[in-house]
Amino acid sequence: MTLRATPTAGTIAAAVLAATALLGLAPRAVAAPVPQPQAATAETRAAAAQAAAAPETLATLSRFFAREGRVSPTAAQPRIEGEAIPVSYLSPEFVAGRAGAPVARLEFLASRAVSSDGQQAALWTARTEAGWQVVNIATGDDEFRYARLGAEKLPGGTVFREPQIDAWYVAGGSRVLPLDEDAVRAVGAGGTSLGAYRARVAKAYGDKLPGSAYAKGGAAGGFAASPEPDATRTAPGTVTAAAAAAGALALAGAGALALRRRRTTAAA
Questions:
Q1: In what order do the strands lie in the sheet with 104-114?
Q2: pTM beyond cutoff 0.85
Q3: Which of 83, 189, 225, 244 is an S-S bond match for 249, by CB 3.0 to 4.6 Å?
Q4: What is the CA radius of gyration of the chain?
């Protein structure tokens, strides 16, 4: 089922987390996040894994998985499965047409969290001024599922998300192929050329990059008032999405932002 939300000022503000990575923007009052490494290394994966498995993270996960009453915090017994994986988003340098810019850039590492009753979540781990920290908890397994689908569809390709429309792709050589229904609607079931894809995103977002009149006007994250943002909700006692986007979310005590992504069917 696809979740829908009316684009109000509140929902647009809540969507900043997904859009900040695309356009490099944040509300004026929020400091920019620390730049992430260009590639996942053994060192960064180890740092992400350590942050994901920290006692305070697991305690927050217990409350997170219990928030809808399906399991109690004591019975949740969250665990971290597998290695942290790199997650890339559409690169603003690519949108701007910078020579040699890759289509996507690394935004965070994701660790899979599973509760005793089978609920799953992705821990988004990023480098902040205080070091590597979990900056978001997102429901579901999108990051891991699309990484697997992308590897199957185009081995060696780059799996990435276009957060403006919640679309997942895999790019390799001169092709961009869709991995979900949102991406199919954007580029067609057969995908498109890298050049055609850049032309599309440049038309859609080129006037919303850092330094643009749109950005200087204080608009958050490249979201206009008319497009429909992803449906989002925050768990009780959480910090704002803008703070999470700035890498300022501390897991201890307060909990974390729960971003409910639209559930989409993977493209064949």
A1: 192-193, 175-178, 167-172, 158-162, 79-90, 104-114, 120-128, 131-139, 258-259
A2: no
A3: 244
A4: 18
